[in-house]
Amino acid sequence: MAITEPELARRLGTERNAWLCTLRADGSPHVTPVWFVHLFDAFWVGSGERNVKVRNVVRDPRVSLALEGGDAPYVAEGRARVHRGTLREDVLAAISAKYDGWGAGVEIEPFGCRVLLEVPVDRWLLKGTAQ
Could you tell me which residues come within 8 angstroms of residue 13 by beta carbon, excluding any fewer than 6 positions away? Predict the structure, then answer.
């Protein structure tokens, strides 16, 4: 879903955090702040394969992502894909550039091998207007 709103495009490029909501096995929500980049009409999040959010996505790919700033909220819904093995260099470079050299592909114990979560947006909710 192409971004046509200038304010949303600006925020996707500059905001440091988004809130990712995944679903636990019992259906309850798990919400966590994440670093992200928005490329190719999708959110990309680096993580370790043993993190709760990754385990949840493997079981049920339905997720929501919310940009910070409740006065002008943007909330996205989509289905996450987990990328393992050789990770996309263009995405890793974008994450590194946005987060001052952070190596999203470097394994951090005890979280296991690095993965990338790709979340193409199925729909946007609220679109910058608090209700």
Answer: 38
Answering whether pTM is above 0.85, one says yes
Distance CA 22, CA 61 (A): 8
CA distance 21 to 103: 23
Three-class secondary structure of residue 23 per DSSP = strand
Q: How far apart are CA 122 and CA 64, in angstroms?
A: 10
Write the CA distances from 21 to 1, 6, 18, 51, 52, integer angstroms.
Answer: 20, 25, 10, 13, 11
Give the pair of three-digit tokens for residue 20: 């990712």
Q: Decide if 92 contacts 105 (C-beta within 8 A).
A: yes
Could you write out the DSSP letters of every residue in 40-77? TTEEEEEEETTSHHHHHHHH--EEEEEES-TTS--EEE
| Long-range contacts, stretch 55-59, CB < 8 angstroms, 24+ apart | 56/22, 56/23, 56/24, 56/25, 56/30, 57/22, 57/82, 57/117, 58/82, 59/23, 59/25
pLDDT 10s digits, 76-128: 999 999 998 878 899 999 999 999 866 666 566 666 788 999 999 999 987 76
